[in-house]
Fold this sequence. Notes:
The protein has helices at 2-46, 54-69, 74-100, 104-115, 135-143, 155-163, 183-189, 226-231, 233-237, 250-260, 271-277, 324-334, 367-379; strands at 123-129, 146-152, 169-176, 180-181, 195-203, 207-210, 221-225, 243-247, 265-269, 280-283, 293-300, 311-317, 338-346, 354-361, 382-389.
Amino acid sequence: MKNREEERLKDLKDLRLEIDKIDDELIELFVKRMDISLEVANYKKANNLPVLNPEREREILNKVSSMVSQKQDAEMDNYARVFFSTLLNVSRSRQDLALRGESPIIKRAHDAIQSTPTLFPEKATVACQGLEGAYSGLASEKLFKLPTIMYFNTFENVFAAVEKGLCQYGILPIENSSAGSVGEVYDLMKNYNFSIAKSVKLHIKHALLVNPETKLSDIKEIYSHEQALNQCGNFLKDLKNVNIKVCENTAEAAKKVKELGSSNVAAISSKSCAALYGLDILNDDIQNSDNNYTRFICISKNLEIYPGANKISIMLSVPHRPLALYHIISKFAALGLNMSKLESRPISGSDFDFMFYFDIDGSLQSELVLSLMSQLEKELDFFVFLGNYPED
């Protein structure tokens, strides 16, 4: 039995040695191919030719498919196409960089790293959506020791206040651990110039707020923000004959209940809003999960990269080509970068085109990561670097 196991191990060792030999040959051929690809780039530059040649790439892939098909191996055909598609993408990337040079993001990043203070500011004028008592305000107080908060009616007004310089920073909810992404914020990102300076996760605990002497059986209407309502779905489904009213934010819901002064209405809001608007807490724990967190981003007009920045956010669109998104993701994988979030949103007015938003664990202090961002900016028709920032 032992001898048989030793023979198997020996066979595996021999197979691995054979693979290592093939890998050595592949590396040598790969370097040679990339060097020739660079010569092709120089020719294209001299003759004012584009990097992408779809006809040439189709010719190569069809040749590969034909050669593999002769061996009557359909499964290998798929593997070969993926392999050579990746090889063509890598070759195209090098040609693109050689033709266009470094992108502006490299200078922006170096300038930001040099000019950003060592410590995140304790005081700032901060734009938030909602009213006093809104969760965005609570997130501001977690990020800044002494924020001067200006409240705006909409998320769009928060973006605009930062872009126009009315406020130094803006606080926006981006996703919730149970209710998912805040789609409206993602949709607005492409319309404004901003950078993410920091992000913070806030533990959200929803309470049912009512006017004094109100009982649960009295309630006919409940006011709150759509995200908060989703986060309290289990509680709401057990209520009978209760109408749901959507508000711009949870603080507005609490204020609305106070103004109505009725025992037939309630708000799903924070406990702090109870004290702020003189309401009673009928139930202080109505969210679906105790592990309920909302992630907020802190945006600024200029790019700021603070020490310890470990998260990168970008948005981009990809061309309508097979494996286009795969090739983007594979670039992160090649550098060992963890992609912590991928969000897609339809582009308004387009025919099923999508904008993609990535969160990546990484730092622009790494020249390899910075080079990748430069490469993406040069390759893609639409690419926006949103920031490199720390998350609390």
